[in-house]
Amino acid sequence: MPLTVWGLALCQALLVSGNILLIAVSPLVGAQLSGDADWSTLPVATQLLGLTAATLPSGWLTARLGRKRTFLIGNAAGLIGIAICLLALKGAAFPLFTLGTFAIGMSIGAGMLYRFAAIDAASQSQRDRALSLVMAGGVIAAFAGPWLARYTQHAFATPFLGCFVGLAGLYALALLLLSRLELPSPRGAVDGESPRRPGQLLREPQLLAAVVIATLSYAIMNLAMTATPLAMTHAGHGFADVTNVIQWHILAMFAPSFVTGDLTRRFGYRPMIAAGSLALLASLLCALLPTTFWTFAIGLFLLGLGWNFTFLPASAWLTTTYRPGEAPRVQAINDCAVFSLTTLSALLAGPLNAWLGWQTLNLLLLPLVMVLMVVGLGMSRLQRPLIAKRD
Prior knowledge:
The chain is mainly α. It is 80% helix and 0% strand. Pfam families: MFS_1.
């Protein structure tokens, strides 16, 4: 595997470590600064809104400036956002805090393209494994993110200030690493081949199915995950229990990535997506059990596993549905769709958990899991992927 892929995996680990810290801390900071449980997940939503807002510009920048400059610009935006959050915490300013998480979200939006950059750096036979290896960088994050959240929470007199100081360290390290990596530009178009317009691309059944599966799986996972710290706190569990559950959830999200690529190549996209859908279904049913630490832990573990077995195969499947010169455009459209719905899920997590309760919230997600399974099993039969056109 090329050294660039390993470097991107480490950058992914740093990115996800910071994201885990934000997931665990932002709803609690939101509740603290706003004084209203209904607004507690707004900082998570603005983070995802920033992520979504960055997807299309990131594709545009990638096509014109290349991967490396785009990633460096995105990382710099994250450091600016962290500085804003630090000022907001010192001044107890909730609107300013949401502005900071928006800027951090823009940085994460650019970083989400690490997985596609790994595909460009790998050979044809290594593409699925390269994508999975980069996503496997989250295994480190599963331990580093919660650890950093726990041990920096009270590092300063202002609660959670130390968490964002630690987050700044992660982003500074990623910026240094990205500046040293040799990142190839996306593959160009074949002579005489003009990229299709977005409307034409979305009429491609295979491409549309891959985008729908990636979008639904991420939104389902994010809504349940974002509501978990609030539901656990309401059930009487402490902050340490919350971070432990999130840690095992993130581990389940990324640890299978070491084998997901090989499993996808062996069994195909449909069986993997079906297996992931069943894991998501089991996760949601765990919410019907008593709200003990272990029901939360097992449910969130299955939630992470289900996400891995749906989102990663969908991402790999997507790369077979477009022509070489269309890569930045399609990747940006995919991530824009994914994180638009994910942003909505984060915005709704707090109010839905407060109004409906943890169990009813999870029941409402069951029809979406069924849609996920139907699309995965049905749409992928329509036609063969466009691998020949890409190469």
